[in-house]
Specification:
The complex is a heterodimer of chains A (267) and B (301).
Chain A (H helix, E strand, L loop, with lengths): L6 E12 L2 E13 L4 E5 L6 H9 L6 E6 L2 E2 L7 E4 L11 H13 L5 H14 L15 H14 L4 E5 L7 H18 L2 E6 L2 H7 L2 E5 L7 E6 L8 H4 L3 H17 L8
Parallel strand pairs in A: 3-8, 3-9, 6-7, 7-8
Antiparallel strand pairs in A: 1-2, 1-4, 4-5, 9-10
Chain B lengths: L1 H5 L2 H13 L20 H27 L9 H13 L12 H32 L1 H14 L4 H12 L2 H26 L3 H10 L3 H39 L4 H10 L3 H28 L8
Helix pairs in contact in B: 2-10, 4-12, 5-6, 5-8, 5-10, 5-11, 7-8, 8-10, 10-11, 10-12, 11-12
The chains are: A alpha/beta (267), B mainly alpha (301).
Chain lengths: 267, 301
């Protein structure tokens, strides 16, 4: 298996049936992601970022082309490609512990004993700094904490790929910053392959190895890819005045606001 | 889907649940909007704003009743009714003959019929609601039937019960069954249909088994809707039993009302009205408590 071609998106098109006829959301996407790489998908609203992520997750199947992971064709969702949803999607009747346990039990339940499963859940909750909230229900904790439980649920399954759909989009700026730093730290430790959808330029440059910039929909495709060669570990404070950081940031902003100006679609 | 056939009613039923489950709405009013309040002492406040208004309501009712009735009126006075009630409740569980029993027995046998009829309706209605909500085919198959039969008056079903079951008791239970099944079917189906797609996506990504999906996602998500259906069903069952028993006879609060009418014992009818109301209120309170215990904050998208 070639580690440089861990996830392959080959000639993918995605169209949806609507009342006005077929709607082409994505046209001819080709993308290869290496093992351990952190890739962000960035673009304006409605450019099909989430559609592409859902294809890799297997939540939907492409109209044309194939999506491969580790040499196998993706034909459905599975715990080896864990998803962190935009709105956390925790089950409100389960405690934080039980929300994480649900996935862990499914993945490791057949091979490990109950106390080992419990240890896994506790370790992951500790990783995201939520040991104290393990026995609270999602309704009793803050938005940032819920998002961290969502991240823990994904991480605890030890997925080969971590797929994140604007995971911090609903958080306030300070919490988001903290979560980004924690994610940097966690990914450095777990060496996960990550595909993340975002619309935040700073977030993309800070976290990514590559930034995939998408053109406006309909029939969106990959406009340009920026390779971010900033050394790791990255620290937000050091990067602010780093000339390379400023350069990457400008490249993305230039693409998004000069060449792909957001146009409000006539509905 | 289901809404086309059922019209607005399921929505109204569901919203009713939300209002019941959120008793904090009143206290959430802003300070500017709050009505002017006298005094600040908590005991005084409790007496004036919590105890006094309902007492005023009852005083008004009894006052109007006392003014409208006199010694020569056919309609009994509040005092006569109270005296009759004291006699009735001093020995509620006597048995003098097959139909001549205390009011306690009447209430208990009515509750038993409601329990059996409603229980059978829950056993059939809740699984049917799940099937209608989960499978489009079943939903479309049942929609016209439900729309057709739901508005039918309970008493129209009674002769069918008498014919098929050849007995007054099973016929009354049948009537309860057929009238209390609809809210449970409809609310369960609506609950299943409103299951957020996010939860199903979680189930798919975690690759949960059908059993886990049912116990960890479907059932808890639908439970509040289901309990609203149960509450409405019990309410309807308690309404219907009085009418059904008036026609079938035997022992039961509805039969008792009709029997006392034949005896022209109007004080007992009035006592029965208060008893029926109180029992209905208690059933409602218990079920609202149960529903509140199982209502959780939903994911907001």
């Amino acid at each position: 298996m070639n580690h440089n071609q861990y996830i392959e998106v080959i000639g993918v098109q995605q169209s949806f049936k609507t009342k006005k006829g077929p709607f082409l959301a994505l046209s001819t996407i080709d993308l290869t992601i290496a093992k351990g790489e952190f890739v962000t998908l960035i673009g304006h609203s409605g450019c099909g970022k989430t559609t592409l992520l859902n294809l890799i997750a297997g939540l939907s199947t492409p109209s044309e082309g194939v999506v491969m992971c580790a040499g196998h064709r993706i034909d459905g969702p599975g715990p080896e490609r864990a998803v962190v949803f935009q709105n956390h999607s925790l089950l409100p009747w389960l405690t934080c512990f039980d929300n994480v346990y649900l996935g862990v039990e499914r993945v490791f339940g057949a091979s490990e004993k109950k106390h080992q499963l419990t240890q896994r859940v506790q370790a992951t909750l500790a990783l995201v700094g939520l040991t104290h909230a393990a026995h609270k229900r999602p309704g009793e904790i803050s938005g940032g904490m819920k998002q961290r439980v969502g991240l823990a649920r994904a991480l605890a399954m030890e997925p080969k790929v971590l797929l994140m759909d604007e995971p911090f989009g609903a958080l306030d700026a300070l919490t988001r910053t903290k979560m980004q730093d924690e994610l940097l730290d966690i990914v450095a430790r777990t060496r996960s392959t990550v595909v993340m959808v975002t619309h935040d330029v700073d977030e993309a440059v800070l976290l990514s190895d590559r930034i995939v910039m998408m053109t406006n929909g309909p029939a969106a495709t990959i406009g340009e890819i920026v390779q971010v060669d900033l050394p790791r570990p990255r620290r937000r404070v050091d990067l602010v005045e780093n000339s390379e950081y400023v350069h990457y940031r400008k490249a993305v902003i230039d693409f998004l606001y000069t060449r792909q100006t957001y146009v409000e679609k006539a509905a | 889907m289901i809404g086309n056939w059922f019209g607005v009613r399921p929505l109204a039923l569901v919203e009713d649940a939300a209002a019941k489950a959120a008793p904090s709405v009143r206290s959430g009013r802003s300070a500017a909007m709050a009505p002017r309040r006298l005094g600040t002492h908590p005991v005084l406040q409790f007496c004036v704003y919590t105890l006094l208004p309902p007492l005023c309501g009852f005083a008004l009712l009894i006052g109007a009743w006392a003014l409208a009735t006199g010694d020569e009126s056919l309609f009994p006075t509040p005092w006569a009714t109270l005296e009759a009630a004291i006699v009735l409740f001093s020995d509620p569980f006597f048995v003098y003959g097959p139909n001549d029993v205390g009011i306690g027995w009447h209430v208990l046998s009515s509750l038993e019929r409601v329990g059996v009829g409603f229980g059978l309706a829950a056993l059939v209605g809740i699984p049917l609601g799940f099937a209608i909500g989960r499978y489009l085919f079943v939903g479309r198959m049942m929609d016209p039937l439900i729309s057709l039969f739901r508005p039918v008056s309970p008493l129209a079903w009674l002769p069918i019960g008498l014919l098929v079951f050849q007995g007054s008791d099973p016929a009354a239970i049948w009537t309860i069954f057929i009238c209390s099944i609809w809210p449970m079917v409809i609310n369960t189906a609506v609950g299943v249909q409103r299951l957020p797609q996010d939860y199903l996506n979680v189930a798919r990504v975690l690759n949960l088994s059908e059993w886990k999906i049912f116990t960890k996602i479907l059932l808890p998500a639908v439970l509040p809707y289901m309990l609203t259906g149960v509450r409405l069903a019990v309410g309807i069952a308690w309404l219907v039993i009085v009418a059904a028993e008036m026609l079938t006879g035997g022992v039961g609060i509805g039969f008792w009302v009709w029997d006392e009418w034949n005896n022209l014992n109007v004080t007992h009818i009035i006592v029965a009205i208060f008893v029926i109301g109180s029992v209905g209120l208690m059933l409602e309170l218990v079920l609202v408590r149960v529903a509140q215990a199982f209502t959780f904050e939903d994911v907001k998208s």
